[in-house]
Amino acid sequence: MSLARRRLLTCTLAIATGASAVSCGATTTLTVQGLGPHTVLNAKAAAALVVRVASHGGSAKNATATVDGRPVQVTIEGNTIDVTPGALPDGPHTIVVRAGGAKLTRTFTVDATPPALTVAAPPTAPSLRSPVTLTGTVDGATKVEAGTQVVPVTGGHFSVTVPTPPAALKVRAFDAAGNVAVKVVSVSVLHPLMRGVHLTGYGWNADFLRDPVLRLARQHRINTVELDVKEEDGYVDFNTKVGLAHRIGGVRVLYDPRKVIPLLHKMGVRVVGRIVCFRDPKLAAWAWVHHHRDWDVQAPGGKAPYKSAKYGGAAFTNWASPAVQAYNIALATEAAKLGFDDVMFDYVRRPDGPLNTMRFPGAGRTTAPVGVANFVRDASGPVRAGGAYLGLAVFGVSATRPKEVGQDIGAMARYVDYVAPMVYPSHWGPGEYGVGNPNAQPYAIVNRSLKDFQKKVAGTTAQVMPWLQDFSLGVHYGVPQVAAQILAARADHIGSFLLWNAGCVYQGAALAVDRKMPRTTD
User: Cα–Cα–Cα angle for 49, 51, 52, nearest 5°?
Assistant: First the structure.
């Protein structure tokens, strides 16, 4: 321990071997509680320090006390003297209490300085399942932990190997006073290029929808299939082991991931498991009836679940509910352990709509951006530990309007491998990003909006991997319109994307990899 950093001094007593002090000729005896010999106090203990002295055989009425020669406050009740030293700097201190002709002296040390801790880790790892070695130095510590593992320290240096790249591993150093230094270590793994399409559970279950997607994979036009785990209606599409899903009647078996994932992996196709988080009418309706009403987003008075023309009633669970969060994290962790290469959270937000029409039990109306980001933070560790990347499907407007649905892209990006903004041209209003008719100008609106998302994730290890539109809404979308979006992303140096079509039907010609894709004129 550095002497310059810590000035520790052995405690002394007026009577070295006892806990009392007696003045010559006096009948009063003073004893102290809560401050033993050689006591070292950390910051928290020093701030709360009250020294209790008992007077035996004499009055405590006129008791006085000093700390380092400075008079301090005493509180006298009967024969008990409570001494409050107040704020104390690091180093040795001496308290002196006088009462009834007796004097008690006790010295102690305040050590509020945590150990000096440094931790180094590789910035990236080759895969989610590769071991990672952390090294570091520490000064003034009696113990170092990495997660729950105690790490040996030799000459102030330590090294520990963890089995997988950590998303947020806490390394803690403890000193003798109880001070703790904490460093959070994250090691990123660069997500591979992803060109994929969306399939619901029913889509996989239906030959006429599944087979064309598999054909695209065999043609090497896609390398990823996004397969729903929990859908917008709140149902889990396979026989999950998460008990709450069965308890609410929220399980339907449309596929078996233990068979589907190996099949796709054998074809060289990655599998993304999509979990619709807080839009969950199955859980919301069950929770309301079964007296877990704080699990739901509520109407302002709290007497009914939130209802909107777009979603109906009891459609959104409460993002601030620990039980709701735990349910979604359990499903995500299970998906990772089942072999899904990625877990993607969708509807990881509050309902869109005026804040004055909704109530979030346990949280303020305006706190969703922070609360949702904290949920993503809490999910990232279990998902990473299960061997999967974590991605987020987010609103296209969230890059510039984080309060609109409670999605702060910059905050959430710290905890995920990628964000997948839904920059569907049909969902933008006229004039957004200076584009007069976004739905008819897919290249321009996608290219310009993605630039904002790249700015938001700057400084993190998260990538931008957008959802692109392969459906018609107001304007017919054929191969040129779909391909224009892919080209627009590529012009932003984004090669990864997922195509969305609720009907799970895709235009393979737009995914051609062996020729230049057509571009519409915007």
Answer: 140
